[in-house]
Design goal:
Structural class: mainly alpha
Mean pLDDT: 77
Largest sheet: 4 strands, antiparallel
Radius of gyration: 20 Å
Distance between the termini: 9 Å
Strand content: under 5%
Number of strands: 4
Low-confidence stretches: 1-19, 30-54, 77-82
Order of helices and strands: HHHHHEEHHHHEEHHH
Helix content: 40-55%
Strand order of the largest sheet: 1-2-3-4
Number of helices: 12
Number of domains: 1
């Protein structure tokens, strides 16, 4: 099945949603404070194609599917009688917030998630994780507590071994979420994600394919051992940054050149990264159980 109408996407959806939201939100939380001043740029999105001559606007292309989202839950009925119609994307905040609270509880939602305009934030974050930069004002999560921790050794600066403790509560929270129930909720609300993805400039692309691609990219993050050396770019001029710790970079050019998403996992510490990658792998198995479509 290489093509599917949006109505088919809706007919295949039911149950409750959250899967990628929580795992990728955990990853986003690791970088929120780090990138607070360096990443204030707007969303990275492809430029629209330039037409050589004026022409009538074509109808939006149907997404080409490699990982149809409904295949994650083939046992669900195609048209559940009890499924309520979804609101418009711009009016979906209350529904999404209610569903998040229903799945994980009000306190965790308030503690970890930025639920306002959540679907757009989630889709934007997913799309930007494999890129070099991701605008922090669009993250779907609250910042990790305290500030990024470093330590000095032999006149050099390293990521502190204690820094990973800032993220442990969020990692435990992610691990506690039932992946199957989360995937079912994602399937139900998938049309909202698809609309948000098309708004970014991908009218002929399928968001679930992008999500699987991003998960694979994050799973390819290298395993780190030993202390990670840091550096700060030289600040020229009389004005010094009020929070110089946000300017840290990896001293190793190979690490610094990696994507925003992979650097986030590295900064969170090897144990946290391993635990999140295990959840991502479980998520991928449930979201894409069949071989990709040619």
């Amino acid at each position: 099945m290489c093509n599917a109408s949006r109505s088919e996407m809706r007919l295949k959806s039911t149950a409750r949603w959250l899967a990628p939201v929580l795992v990728l939100a955990a990853i986003a939380a690791g970088a929120f404070y780090w990138w607070q001043q360096r990443q204030e740029s707007a969303i990275v999105a492809p430029e629209p194609p330039r037409a050589e001559a004026p022409a009538p606007s074509p109808a939006p292309a149907e997404p080409q599917l490699r990982h149809p989202v409904w295949e994650a839950r083939p046992e669900l009925p195609e048209q559940p009688a009890a499924a309520a119609p979804l609101p418009a994307l711009g009016e979906s905040d209350k529904l999404v917030q209610d569903e998040l609270v229903g799945l994980v509880g009000r306190e965790p939602v308030l503690a970890f998630l930025s639920a306002s305009n959540y679907v757009r934030r989630f889709v934007t974050t997913v799309d930007n994780l494999p890129r070099k930069h991701a605008a922090v004002r669009l993250w779907p999560v609250n910042p990790a507590p305290d500030r990024f921790a470093t330590e000095e050794q032999a006149n050099a600066t390293y990521v502190s071994a204690s820094n990973s403790r800032r993220y442990e509560p969020l990692v435990r929270f992610v691990e506690s979420v039932n992946t199957g129930a989360a995937v079912a909720l994602y399937v139900r609300l998938y049309p909202l994600c698809q609309r948000a993805y098309e708004e970014l400039g991908y009218p002929g692309r399928y968001f679930n394919d992008r999500l699987i691609e991003v998960i694979d990219h994050l799973l390819a993050t290298p395993e780190m051992s030993g202390p990670i050396l840091l550096t700060r770019p030289e600040v020229r001029g009389p004005i010094k940054p009020e929070r110089p710790w946000v300017m840290y970079q990896f001293a190793d050019p190979a690490l610094e050149s990696r994507s925003a998403g992979q650097k986030i996992l590295i900064r969170m510490g090897s144990e946290n990264a391993t635990r999140l990658k295990a959840k991502l792998a479980d998520l991928r198995r449930q979201l894409a159980p069949a071989a990709p479509k040619p």
